[in-house]
Amino acid sequence: MKISCTQENLNQGLFIVSHIASKNMALPILNNILIQVDKNTIKFSATNLEIGVSCIIRGKVEEDGEFTVQSRLIADYAALLPKEKIDLSVAESKKEGEDQVLAISCKNHNTKIKGQPAADFPLIPQIDRKNLYVMNCQELRRAISQVIFAVSGSETRPEINGVFFKFEGDNLVLAATDSYRLAEKSVKLGKKSKGTNQSVIVPARTLQELQRILGSFKDPAAISEIEDVEIYLGENQILFVLGDIELISRLVEGQYPDYRQIIPKESNTKIVLNIAELINAAKTASLFARSGIYDINLDFNKDEIVVSAANNQLGENISKLSGKISGQQNSIVVNYRYLLDGLQNLDAEEAELSIIDGGNPCVIKTAGKDSDYLYIIMPIKQ
Amino acid sequence: MKISCTQENLNQGLFIVSHIASKNMALPILNNILIQVDKNTIKFSATNLEIGVSCIIRGKVEEDGEFTVQSRLIADYAALLPKEKIDLSVAESKKEGEDQVLAISCKNHNTKIKGQPAADFPLIPQIDRKNLYVMNCQELRRAISQVIFAVSGSETRPEINGVFFKFEGDNLVLAATDSYRLAEKSVKLGKKSKGTNQSVIVPARTLQELQRILGSFKDPAAISEIEDVEIYLGENQILFVLGDIELISRLVEGQYPDYRQIIPKESNTKIVLNIAELINAAKTASLFARSGIYDINLDFNKDEIVVSAANNQLGENISKLSGKISGQQNSIVVNYRYLLDGLQNLDAEEAELSIIDGGNPCVIKTAGKDSDYLYIIMPIKQ
Q1: Which of A19, A208, A321, B279 pairs with B89 at a CA distance of 20 to 30 A?
Q2: Cβ within 8 Å, pair A109-B319
Q3: β-bridge mates for residue A184, sequence order
Q4: Could A316 and B109 be called an inter-chain contact, meaning their C-beta atoms sit closer than 8 Å?
Q5: Nearest to A346 by CA among A207, A185, A148, A150
Q6: Model confidence over B81-103: pLDDT tens digits?
Q7: What is the pLDDT of residues B145-160, one digit of tens each?
Q8: CA closest to B110 among chain A residues
Q9: Which class is domain A2-120?
Q10: Class of domain B131-259
């Protein structure tokens, strides 16, 4: 194997794949990245057996070959190299038993990194590219960030440890819940989509990795500005294709809860108010919430919204906000952390809260327009 | 007690003092700040019994009095309030056994914070303001940052857990060591200084707190731009006065080691080289240093500097730098963390390294001029 490339291309390729490599005592090679050079293509891959990621980088191929080296070491090293041409090569080992090394040279730096043969690296699965869905990268990124925080961390219910992806007609609906609150977002699919209506559960870890990669595209130094992401669904697997980058993951097995049935269809009180003001009032009240309960009170009366909390040890806080209240006088007690999570994800100046009473879920949306985002909090019953 | 002030003044005063208040199971009131209003002066104080800090804030006094409230709670709360006028008051308790509260109101926010009577708050010691030394705030801040990282964390030798302050003539010399490396910095004293020649050891924790306060002066929102710091030495105590802010601390008892004797007076090799290049080469080599030993090799031969490291598990790295070498061919093995610490504190483009041999300390200074900063690393002997 013998290649050369710019420091930027090497660094960016390693940034994409190196994160997924991880320490695994049973299979130490998972700590490595796989470098494959074949027919003028340079490809880096890594896997943790649940997620596989690969990336093709630009460079000049002088000799085909493949090799694996420790992911973190080569990524840290490449990041320190000057922005110059870098030569990478693996020589055929001459003596039996001698460790093979990846030689890297760049300007005044010369390095030899020990590695393992590519033959020991696990296969990253492939899927049939049949069920294709296309959407805008940054829209998908924003949609994931609006729901992923609500994913449950519980290990007893694996089906809510992921985000529900429901492909239906021209839309993808994403939903996440930990049974205390629920976030749901709808995104338009691109015209090239030709997949069938299907629902799957994507592990939160996979989406975090996807977010990391999508986030790097905002960086001017990123590999390229990719507009669309292609999503393919296979048997128990999902593949995200972003230009020269591929991320494949297993899906979560099981049945996602039928969350639509808990979304209240009616309400007794609707409140429209400034989001920034409500966030600020919830934060000041939060300092006086009871520890472990995180309870703050929301009271709605005529055109006055009162956000308050009281605590035997610390004292109490009352903030008054103005807003537009329609329907009856009402009140609800909520966990301020769940309230803030939802409010901070609304892309608007004003929110609309809908309430039946203090014993039923509170629905939060962007005010004034047909919202593609919905957030629901279960009340703390007194 | 009844006062009013701007949110900015309240917030800044709390920023200065609240950090030193800390959880103390034996004396819970140390978690509070003391608010004293007396003769048109509003003063906030906090102490951990080793360090005491106080700050006078601007505001309007309507009624004298004093009270203590939980430091973190009031600081977090004040930071969330709008930039408006804030009213603070403590009412005399009417019923026996009723908790006293500090009432805070600002625009639409109304709060009551429970507190404890000021009578229970420990006295913060005062010292005779005789031995005065004056110096520029930001020069002192920079000098402390150039030495404090070398302070020992060892508990068996408390005398090197602090920074050595030697007031001598027109200069203050600061020194710190953990016996593996040593940093020494000299600062000019201001003309108003009238203290005698003295040496003391100031606890690292005290200087970290001073740095935090000095650092806040760069913030445009800080209380005021204070140019000079006044330092007073008392029996076992040191007082730093920064305008309306006072920081008093106990001193470390014991004799500081006579570190001057270990500074080599001669050398066999002097090397002048670019600091950024040496930092980069040390970082790339560091990836191949042996774990727990952190060893990298520096070789000096004619006009070539070779920085290298090798590791049985990982591989090896060699970087070549150009520089000006005078004297004999030489080499030394050093801990890369200690080398980087020193290099990152030199205010220059080029460093001068002086070496006797691989068995003696390496001296690092700014090249070309009479340096007021000196850094010494003990070698790793092979």
Answers
A1: A321
A2: yes
A3: A175, A374
A4: no
A5: A185
A6: 999 999 999 987 667 667 799 99
A7: 999 999 998 888 999 9
A8: A318
A9: alpha beta
A10: alpha beta
